[in-house]
């Protein structure tokens, strides 16, 4: 038996780094600039605590392209390295200088600001470069500059050199198959994507600006060439909420989404340092009818370095329709910093974000209810989705989730229950919440409910069936019923029973006549004793069948229900004179015509009469007017 250590050699690791470690080759620029930022922040720390005597001066990081030489250079004016340090941090693969620095100066340095943790980022350069050079001058004036060179294999050269300024130049000799990274537009795209908010100024070329000199009639414009700084080192989310005004948040939103013209409805500023580090700003946009259109607009940063806009796990699913930024050094990433690794911290952060959003919504509701109501229709899908998918959010949302009736009035659920409980509690003690999906399309049914003194909610979001199911299971003796799912007297049953003008024998005679005149596969004929002022024929959609069908179509309910054909009840009011006239008519053809006209009118009131059937109905109606 023998013991030993498994050795990972440069011969084995280089192909992995170059081809497999980083899923996207463009990541190399993010990694190199992140290293340059680290070197700059380390120098600032050492200068602040007196361990470096150098003058900080201009700390701008610069990116330069030389198409003729086929090189891309990343230059910083940070800590710099001696030959010994290059040998330690570059030649010892996966030794993270950032990790070592944070441990050494954890009481003095801003560890949250140091980006690197794996010590592999530098080697991502070899994905696009056939040769990489390092020219570095340490902040320690006594140290000689170092020049390192490697062609992507275990062989390298390291020697002393001359460099006038403190800092490090990383020079990439770009491969022939990666020449896209010598194009200014491509590099600018990557800088905008990954480095837009890094905490050190980053220069990429120059730009021409126009300055106004003087005032009044003496004012004149002068063009001037200045450094093109591509990033905002101090974005809004890094500042204290108390230091920002509403206009600052709107400006930041436009900075995040320059091609978006609509302003957000409101924002939520995240600023947590215990039990984990989390900052960010979330914006509530106006939600479009297709919820999927607005997803993946939240950007994840780690120490102001862009990581991803796919925040599955870290942000609850219902909040992926929000826009904005989240930044946390405590979010675990894979070695290439390209995606999240699942662990307990992620769940805690996700839970905290949910709570923070709920608290903010409650605050907005309490502070200015009228303004909150004016925005409700634009955010309700997000809130309702959250109530369905998150138990804790459902409980919190009871304070601010709103329900609108067809008159345009808004209520919390408890307020609405209090409003309707006296009139809309049936004989069995069950509170019936009447609702409509279309205020105009179901107007006749809404009117009948109003005539009884009842109130009707407008429930028209895509997931309303799921929400009602959730509310019913959370409230004992409460049910939702759409106004067109039955006659109003059947929806809210009271003690009194309506007598029928027709005898049982007459009803048994009439029912098969009507059944023989309609499509039995589509309609179930129901003879009911309704008030004489109710319509003679009413088309209703059974609540259970319709709701299960809707839930199945939006994910949920009973499997296969979404594909079932539409089924309707044809309710015949035995107390209406028109129904009695049908029974009295001796001419069979006239009898069928009366039934057809009554059925079509009932379908028309539900917007269900379409196509050829609608055309025939219109022609038949005009013909009857002409004959009359």
From TrEMBL:
The keyword Chaperone applies. Gene3D superfamilies: 3.30.230.80, 3.40.50.11260, Heat shock protein 90, C-terminal domain, Histidine kinase-like ATPase, C-terminal domain. Pfam families: HATPase_c_3, HSP90. ATP binds at residues 31, 35, 76, 81, 96-97, 168, 337. GO terms for molecular function: ATP binding; ATP hydrolysis activity; ATP-dependent protein folding chaperone; unfolded protein binding. Keywords: ATP-binding, Chaperone, Cytoplasm, Nucleotide-binding, Stress response. InterPro entries: HATPase_C_sf, Heat_shock_protein_90_CS, HSP90_C, Hsp90_fam, Hsp90_N, Ribosomal_Su5_D2-typ_SF. Belongs to the heat shock protein 90 family. This is Chaperone protein HtpG. It comes from Owenweeksia hongkongensis (strain DSM 17368 / CIP 108786 / JCM 12287 / NRRL B-23963 / UST20020801). The lineage of its organism: Bacteria, Pseudomonadati, Bacteroidota, Flavobacteriia, Flavobacteriales.
């Amino acid at each position: 038996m023998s013991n030993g250590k498994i050795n990972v050699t440069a011969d084995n690791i280089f192909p992995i780094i170059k081809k497999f470690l980083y899923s996207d080759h463009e990541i190399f620029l993010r990694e190199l600039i992140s290293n340059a930022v680290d070197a700059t922040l380390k120098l600032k720390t050492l200068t602040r605590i007196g361990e470096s005597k150098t003058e900080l001066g201009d700390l701008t990081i610069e990116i330069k392209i030389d198409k003729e030489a086929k090189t891309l250079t990343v230059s910083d004016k940070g800590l710099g390295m001696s030959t010994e340090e290059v040998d330690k941090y570059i030649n010892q693969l996966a030794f993270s200088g950032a990790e070592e620095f944070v441990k050494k100066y954890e009481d003095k340095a801003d560890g949250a600001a140091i980006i690197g943790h794996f010590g592999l980022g530098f080697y991502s350069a070899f994905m696009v470069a056939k040769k990489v050079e390092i020219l570095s001058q340490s902040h320690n004036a006594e140290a000689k500059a170092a020049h390192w060179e490697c062609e992507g294999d275990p062989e390298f050269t390291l020697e002393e050199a001359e460099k006038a300024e403190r800092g490090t130049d990383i020079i990439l000799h770009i491969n022939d198959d990666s020449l896209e990274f010598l194009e200014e537009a491509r590099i600018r795209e990557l800088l905008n994507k990954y480095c837009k908010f890094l905490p050190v100024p980053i220069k990429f070329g120059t730009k021409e600006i126009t300055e106004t000199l003087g005032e009044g009639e003496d004012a004149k414009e002068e063009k001037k060439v200045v450094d093109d700084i591509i990033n905002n080192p101090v974005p809004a989310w890094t500042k204290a909420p108390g230091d920002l005004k509403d206009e600052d948040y709107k400006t930041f939103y436009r900075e995040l989404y320059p091609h978006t013209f609509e302003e957000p409805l409101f924002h939520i500023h995240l600023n947590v340092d215990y039990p984990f580090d989390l900052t960010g700003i979330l914006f509530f946009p106006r939600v479009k009818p297709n919820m999927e259109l607005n997803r993946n607009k939240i950007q994840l940063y780690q120490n102001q370095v862009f990581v991803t806009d796919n925040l599955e796990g870290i942000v609850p699913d219902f909040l992926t329709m929000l826009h904005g930024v989240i930044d946390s050094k405590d979010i675990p990433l894979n070695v290439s910093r390209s995606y999240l690794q699942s662990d307990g911290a992620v769940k805690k952060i996700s839970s905290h974000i949910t709570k923070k959003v709920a608290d903010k919504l409650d605050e907005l509701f309490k502070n200015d209810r009228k303004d909150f109501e004016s925005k409700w229709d634009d955010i309700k899908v997000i809130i309702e989705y959250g109530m369905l998918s998150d138990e804790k959010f459902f409980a919190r949302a009871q304070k601010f989730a709103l329900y609108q009736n067809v008159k345009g009035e808004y209520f919390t659920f408890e307020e609405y229950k209090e409003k309707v409980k006296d009139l809309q509690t049936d004989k069995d003690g069950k509170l019936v919440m009447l609702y409509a999906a279309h205020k105009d399309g179901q107007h006749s049914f809404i009117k009948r409910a109003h005539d009884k003194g009842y109130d009707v909610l407008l429930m028209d979001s895509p997931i309303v069936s799921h929400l009602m199911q959730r509310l019913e299971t959370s409230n004992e003796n409460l049910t939702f019923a759409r106004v067109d799912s039955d006659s109003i007297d059947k929806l809210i049953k009271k003690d009194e029973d309506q007598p029928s003008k027709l005898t049982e024998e007459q009803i048994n005679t009439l029912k098969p006549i009507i059944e023989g005149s309609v499509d039995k596969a589509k309609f179930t004929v129901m003879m009911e004793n309704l008030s004489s002022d109710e319509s003679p024929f009413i088309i209703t959609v059974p609540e259970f069948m319709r709701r299960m069908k809707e839930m199945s179509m939006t994910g949920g309910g009973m499997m296969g229900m979404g594909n079932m054909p539409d089924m309707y009840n044809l309710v015949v009011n035995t107390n209406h004179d028109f129904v009695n006239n049908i029974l009295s008519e001796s001419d069979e053809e006239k009898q069928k015509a009366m039934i057809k006209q009554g059925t079509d009118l009932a379908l028309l009131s539900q917007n269900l009469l379409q196509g050829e059937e609608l055309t025939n109905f219109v022609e038949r109606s005009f013909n009857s007017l002409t004959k009359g």
